[in-house]
Specification:
16 helices; two-stranded antiparallel sheet
Length: 363
Amino acid sequence: MISASSGNQTRNNILTLASIALLAAFLWLAPKYLDGYKIRIINMIAINAILGLSLNLIYGMAGMFSLGHAGFMAIGAYVSALLILTPEQKSVSWILEDIAPWLLNLHAPFFVSLLLAGIFAAFFGWLISLPILRLGGDYLGIATLGFSEILRILIANLTPITNGPIGLKGIPAHTNLWVSYGCLLIFLIAVIRLMGSNFGNVIRAVRDDEIAAKTMGVNTFQTRVLAFTIGCFGAGVGGALMGNIITTIDSKMFTITQTYNILMIVVIGGLGSITGSILGSVIITTMLEWLRFVENPLTIGAFKMDGKPGMRMVIFSILLVAVIIFRREGIMGMREFSWDWILSRPAAVRNRFAHRKTPKGGD
């Protein structure tokens, strides 16, 4: 006889496979029925989900307050772009100074460039984590923010390598729906497996009570370094995908505002929730695009208002403050999506309703 738990697991697997099939069908049909602008938004949802997951791994799951995500995104974007630009493109793009000779003929396929973008970002994340992860709380946030700003200034001035303030233009647009959502699926599975492993339990233990974890013999510093490094890998891949969809990058793209956007995804979705990062990406990405109208001149009958650049971020700042005040745990809190929870809700509601309808005296 098949147990109830085994039957539920089979049902859940079927529903998960059906959901993936529906998503694949949507990705296949979307280019036929949607314009380029909507396709880009759908791509950005996947890219921001990768970035949200990577920051959530650092902040929500490992408890390290980091404000340097934009710096690791910049590393990934530049590494990927420099590898996929052709020698001909490089020779005509460097105007202020000549390109470094060793870089001119350096070339790699797109997917190799994605992997190397993540590896380079992870390496720099590991390198700076050794000194700064000995700090904690607000000090760690300030240190990572400082690293991000230093890196941005270096990018703007290392002209033989990065083309300086001009940036890189004409990057081949390899990022499409299949690439972005394929990378999201791979990274999502990796994070789920990681957090479901013994190492995931160790990460949570260090986050919840570092002193108790040390007492149990856990090398808390090594654990935090590894979690930080993996998160930086995701930031590098996300930055590379973003650079390949925008097709132009420069140092001004990777300011604290970029980190702030990713932080909103994590906080609104739920600190420590993998599902929350996905939901937060959908909400923040679509609303950031939808709210563009507040930055344009607006006329409603006799009422006229001039466009106010930056008004979107004002609205999002208010939204973030409201979430922190009224629902600090975010949409999902630390919970995760579950078919069992969804399918059991109607039954629970019916049972409560039936219980209320039953007379106190019995039949």
